[in-house]
């Protein structure tokens, strides 16, 4: 057997049924954390340096090694990306925010930003604190428009890009992704639809017990054992689930990190929110790492191409140089961390069928974004699903020859480049925010800490899964 690279083993790990996981108590180890989840996440000390420099010896160590490398480099990655996304080329994203939801307008579920249910009774609070105001997207002024880079449209394999003729440039730096008050059935319906896309491939609904299961609620838990053993699913489906669940967890982390208290009008991190929705499910945080490594691998693979990309349209030459320098640092980091062998996916007998389905379903996820009932959430939903779609395209669609910047200069559209880098930034920021929560936790007095733990234990809702997790997939 040829040597399996680090992150592949991380991909495979849930199938391999790791046996020697007990050596590490970190929540990053392969076995699911079943006790004191919140503490294990919040008391975890991020690695300062990758602990393994030698070729790793087994799945557990390898996985840890990978995650730790991300941890040890995330501060550098985050600071460089923070600068990069402020440059003109990267801060403008062209997007059509006003497409109709193609799937469920028929039953009158409203799509506009006014109709989400909020956390508080809004009649009592100032207008600017209401969900409608928090969800609004600020459009650039005429002056700002003049400095915008040009853009061209090209087909994207894993997503639908908003057409060039429609849509508007949005300055992402002026519309931070954070709490908007968008909650309730509309939001759940969208998440539900996204997880449903996980139900692809081979026999779906039949569980091993022969019972038919329906998939219509969040209350359908995935038995922990199934999650751990992978439930006999094929690798690709598990990857799909990790991507979606990790994206969801990352969005949640941003909401909790920049939470708005609609009663007091104050912005700030909300530890309860993070503990309940992410830390209580350590695997969700693992999937944030997973997505980070996936995106880093894509950036690493496309590195030479990105270095040759035309950032000229961004204005002056000095600016271009600055953009390139910052990008160069990000690519360097990606080349250190983004070790991942994508060639192992989509290899089996049904590989082509599976890949087509994977693609079709991920594309559909990008379509489902048009059903998000909050403008700002829709904007960031589109950016991040396009970013992940671009990474998937880079990893699974393009061979080395295609990546050659000399022969294939128009490989990626500007939207794809912006989305890829910005999405990496979002995940890196999530990892950064988790460290902030760790600090807040460390400063929490023990009475408040036990109250929080008690509350979390009472409130925890199961992870969303597709019933096909219980079916017999490809082998
Ligand atoms: C594309 C999109 C973008 C959004 N952007 C924003 C935003 O920018 N700002 C904002 O304030 N709100 C945003 N929202 C809404 C936000 O994601 C939540 O839906 C909302 O805060 C309500 O949260 P909740 O606690 O009900 O759980 P939700 O996050 O809605 O999750 C629903 C259920 O899914 C399961 N679940 C939760 N997380 C995971 C996971 N990681 N893996 C597997 N299962 C999980 C749980 O059973 C949970 O009860 C967005 C929603 C969507 C669909
Ligand atoms: C960027 O990354 C480099 C290492 O590649 C690091 O030395 C530097 O501090 C990082 N941050 C900034 C803002 O450049
Ligand atoms: C796309 O998603 C919608 C909403 O969940 C669903 O109704 C539709 O069948 C999906 N289409 C494909 C091709 O997966
Ligand atoms: C908002 O702040 C008030 C006053 O400090 C507090 O009682 C309330 O719990 C906070 N709400 C949320 C959702 O954090």
UniProtKB/TrEMBL annotation:
PROSITE patterns: PROKAR_LIPOPROTEIN. Disulfide bonds join 110-115, 374-377. Its cofactor is FAD. GO terms for biological process: protein folding in endoplasmic reticulum. It is found in: Endoplasmic reticulum membrane. It is a peripheral membrane protein. May function both as a monomer and a homodimer. Belongs to the EROs family. PANTHER family: ERO1-LIKE PROTEIN, ERO1-RELATED. This is Endoplasmic oxidoreductin-1.
């Amino acid at each position: 057997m040829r040597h399996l690279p680090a992150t592949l083993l991380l991909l495979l790990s849930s199938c391999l049924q790791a046996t020697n996981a007990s050596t590490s108590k970190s929540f990053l180890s392969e076995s699911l954390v079943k006790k004191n989840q919140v503490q294990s996440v919040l008391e975890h000390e991020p690695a300062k340096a990758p602990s393994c420099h030698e070729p790793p010896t087994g799945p557990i160590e390898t996985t840890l090694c990978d995650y730790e490398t991300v941890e040890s480099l995330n501060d550098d990655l985050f600071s460089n990306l923070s600068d990069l996304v402020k440059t003109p080329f990267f801060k403008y994203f062209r997007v059509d925010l006003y497409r109709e939801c193609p799937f469920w307008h028929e039953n009158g579920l409203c799509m506009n930003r006014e109709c989400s249910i909020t956390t508080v009774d809004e009649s009592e609070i100032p207008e600017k604190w209401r969900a409608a105001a928090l969800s609004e997207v600020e459009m650039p002024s005429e002056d700002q428009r003049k400095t915008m880079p040009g853009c061209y449209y090209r087909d994207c394999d894993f997503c639908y890009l908003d057409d060039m003729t429609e849509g508007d440039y949005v300055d992402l730096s002026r519309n931070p992704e954070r709490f908007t008050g968008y909650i309730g059935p509309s939001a759940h319906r969208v998440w539900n639809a996204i997880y449903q896309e996980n139900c692809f491939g081979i026999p779906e609904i039949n569980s091993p017990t022969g019972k038919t299961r329906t998939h219509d609620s969040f209350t359908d838990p995935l038995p922990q054992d199934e999650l751990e053993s992978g439930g006999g699913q094929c690798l690709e489906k598990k990857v799909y689930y990790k991507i979606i669940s990790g994206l969801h967890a990352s969005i949640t982390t941003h909401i909790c990190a920049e939470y708005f208290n609609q009663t007091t009008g104050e912005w700030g991190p909300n530890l309860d929110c993070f503990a309940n929705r992410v830390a209580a499910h350590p695997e969700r945080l693992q999937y944030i790492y997973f997505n980070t490594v996936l995106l880093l691998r894509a950036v690493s693979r496309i590195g030479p191409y990105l270095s040759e990309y035309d950032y000229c349209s961004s204005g002056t030459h000095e600016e271009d140089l600055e953009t390139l320098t910052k990008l160069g640092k990000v690519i360097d980091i990606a080349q250190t961390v983004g070790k991942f062998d994508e060639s192992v996916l989509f290899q089996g007998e049904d590989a082509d069928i599976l890949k087509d389905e994977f693609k079709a379903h991920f594309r559909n996820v990008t379509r489902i974004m048009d059903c998000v009932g909050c403008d700002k959430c829709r904007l960031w939903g589109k950016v991040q699903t396009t970013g992940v779609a671009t990474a998937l395209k880079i990893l699974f669609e393009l061979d080395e020859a295609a990546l050659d910047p000399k022969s294939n200069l128009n490989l990626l559209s500007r939207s794809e480049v912006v989305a890829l880098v910005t999405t990496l930034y979002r995940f890196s920021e999530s990892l950064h925010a988790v460290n902030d929560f760790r600090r807040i936790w460390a400063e929490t007095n023990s009475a408040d800490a036990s109250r929080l733990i008690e509350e979390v234990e009472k409130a925890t809702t199961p992870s969303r899964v597709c019933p096909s997790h219980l079916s017999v997939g490809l082998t």
